[in-house]
Amino acid sequence: MKKSLRNTIITFGQLVFLLASITLFSNNNAFGQCSNVPVVETVDNGSFEKGYTKTGTNGTQYADGSPVKFKSGLTYAGDWSATGACKYGIGDKWGLGKQESIPCQFATNQLPYGVDYIDANTWKDHTLKTKDGFALIADFYNFCSTNQGTLYSGGRPVAWAQDVNIYPNQTYYFSAYIAGFSKQTSSAKFNFVVVPYAADGTTLLTAQKSVTVINNPGQAMNWVQNYVTWNSTTYTKALITIEVDATGTNCTSAGDFAIDDISFINGCQNVETTTIKPDLGPNTSICASNGTITLNSNVATNTGNGRQFFWYSGTGTTQTTLVSGSTTQNTFNITTPGTYRVCVSDAVLGTCAVNATVVITDSLKVSLPNAVLCSPPTATLTPTVTPAATTGTYTYAWSGAASGSTTSVTATTAGSYTVNVSNLTANSKCTANATSVVTSNLPTAPTNLTYCDGGGTATNLVGGGTAPNNVWTWYGTAAKGNMIGTITNNGTASASWTPPVGTTGDQIVYMSSAATTPLTPNPFGPTLTTSSSALTNLKTNITVSQPIRIQSLTMGIESWTGSGSGTCRTTNTGTENVTINVRNASNNAIVTSVTVAAKCGGLGSVTTNLDLQPGNYILDVVSQGNLLTNPVWSGTPSTYSMAGYLDITGYGTATNYGALGSLVVAKSSACDPIPVTVKAVSCCTKPVITTQPAAQSVCQTETATFGVTMASSPASTVVKWQKVTTAA
Question: Is 145 left (phi over 0), alpha (psi -120 to 50) or beta?
Fold first, then answer.
């Protein structure tokens, strides 16, 4: 008896599994497949991997909108999906499903009636052999009493049917994999039926049925292949069906079945028992080669059983014979693009030859992505060439903003970079171009900056050139450390920079675009108090998800005689220098740093302007005096998140919130800084002698004193005297 997807329970007797490979009518050797007729799979979506049917189409369209080309004599069970309504009773219905359909529709809702159906972890389709593969689910519970089989096959319930176009005078292999998804030992007699069409293409002729195939998987999801052969004689179109034999006592033998990988092909390579299966590999292009591609059938020669190899080229109903019946030529060299097929026949396979086809093109595709110069300030342009070279060699030629024959170039300026990739040795059509448009967010560095050689004198760093939003930031280091200042207004504003006394020669400073966009919430992070941490070093751990600028924050130093060694220990009105080092997550390198003047005896806002790229950092605060904080008396300190931009993830200690509070954060468009040369020039004023020394006459042992009067004489002027002539 059978337990259906309804709550009716019938009991089966133990049946013996028999899988028969049946020939429809005859397997006439006149219909050999080693011919110039192409081998073509005629079934559309026999694997059912197009997935669920589209909601609201009553099973006539797949989710992508393409038509469902098969039909069923069963009733459509409805649109199935992971979020669909549970269907625990689908007697005499069909649907397309996978594992996510099973827990609700077959297992969970069956629990009141027993545990005879598979659970979610048991389902596997045959194609992918995973839970994500689809199959046709058919339930023949009620077909005896409510004749569901009037479609196509004279009173037998049809699980699946499809019209196919075929070649005449060919041996077709009609195969499918069938499995039960009930844990009971269930069995059914399936017929594989071919109904040819008359020459008009619309009139169905007499059904040519197979002998009944008995399928008894024995356990749930045990996929077994059934197949039959059929000779097409003069026919060019047929209706093929998989039906349950509903005659006599067989009505009680149908169960809950899944069907997968249905095939109707003029070759036996889809039959599981075929051990020799040629494979020419994936389609490719001759451009990857040196002009010759060796096609390998991947089938060994075997003269002992009369194995022969047949090679063809072309498509359509007639193909060109290249090699006919060779016992040794299991490979074949080609030098021109086209479609190539190999057919293998031997004493075991008989005239049921196995086939493999490959398409060789002269296609060459080159892609080159666009790039933006910012962070990093250069871009390496490397084309992607499809297919990749095998025995051939590609040549490269760059033009536009670059030149040369290298496989890649480094873009340092904006412009169009074009590459030509070719392998003309393989084929004259093996050439292709690709262009990358490189844009730049980098500022244009001014070229006329100078400072007074010797240092100690302020000089102005103007914006010059261009930058996004005409905003620049000047730094003393390439790591955006020692910020000099941020300026706006192209060419009219400047940042004051004073090199240390003793600085000589040309100097390098760094310039970055500095456009920012405010973010919320601001201020962000913990709120500090005037409580002392009694520590001169505190840390804050952060994660940056997008480029940001920490524009300012709140901090302070304890004013107390025991507060370290800085100025704040003796005053509560001044400031004390504090360094904020931005360290990498491993705490073994400083990425950038800034020195700020923290308020003594209270909290105050300090400007930081720290530009940070995505990554994990430690904000390491180092001072001479005790840093103010917000202590944690119980529990652990809270973390903070500015979603998608900045997260404060910890403080290096569980006793306080670190030394940094109320952060003001902006989205940053700042790029990596570019170096700018500031030339050293002499700033000395030439002294002017207003009174020349008078001539004097002296004798031996006498001395003369000379003096000069100078105007515009710098304080550092040094006067040196030199004897020019000797007195007579």
Answer: alpha
Distances (CA, A) of 404 to 210, 396, 423, 706: 68, 8, 17, 70
* Interval 256-264 mean pLDDT: 90
Rounded average pLDDT over 651-667:
94
**Minimal CA–CA distance to 427: which of 365, 362, 361?**
362
| Cα 359-365-369 angle, rounded to 5 deg | 150
In three state form, how does the secondary structure of 494-519 look? EEEECCCCCCCCCEEEEEEECCEEEC
DSSP for 465-476, written as a single string: S--GGGEEEEES
Q: SS3 of 100, please?
A: helix
Residue 420's pLDDT is 98
The C-alpha atoms of residue 477 and residue 508 are separated, in whole angstroms, by: 8
pLDDT of residue 166: 94
User: pLDDT: is 512 or 583 the higher one?
Assistant: 583
**Of the candidates 668, 524, 539, 546, the residue with the CA atom closest to the CA atom of residue 609:** 668
Residue 287 CA, chain-centre distance (Å), reads 27
pTM of the model: 0.62
Is the Cβ–Cβ distance between 443 and 511 less than 8 Å? yes
State the pLDDT at residue 727: 55
Tokens 């199935």 label which residue? Answer: 80
Least Cα distance to 352 among 170, 166, 169, 192 occurs for 170
Question: Within a 10 A sphere around the Cβ of 27, how many other Cβ atoms?
Answer: 14
Helix (H) or strand (E) holding 102: helix 102-102
Residue 99 phi/psi, 5-degree rounding, is -60, -40
Highest mean pLDDT pick, 407-411, 502-506, 517-521 = 407-411
Asked if 326 contacts 336 with a C-beta cutoff of 8 angstroms, the reply is: no
User: Mapping DSSP to helix (H, G, I), strand (E, B) and coil, where does residue 79 land?
Assistant: coil
Sorted by sequence, the CB contacts under 8 Å of residue 409 that are 6+ apart come out as: 380, 381, 398, 402, 417, 419
Token pair listed for 330: 């299991």
Residue 298, both tokens:
């991947």
Exposed, middle or buried: residue 303 (CB in 10 Å: 0-12, 13-18, 19+)?
exposed
Taking 60 as the threshold, does the pLDDT of residue 23 lie above it?
A: no
Look up residue 95 and give its amino acid. G
Given a contact cutoff of 8 angstroms between Cβ atoms, the answer to whether 410 and 477 are in contact is no
**Joined tokens for residue 483:** 């910020």
Would you mind telling me the total number of residues written for the chain in this entry?
Answer: 728
* Cα 508 → chain centroid: 40
Distance (Å, rounded) from C-alpha 410 to C-alpha 387?
24
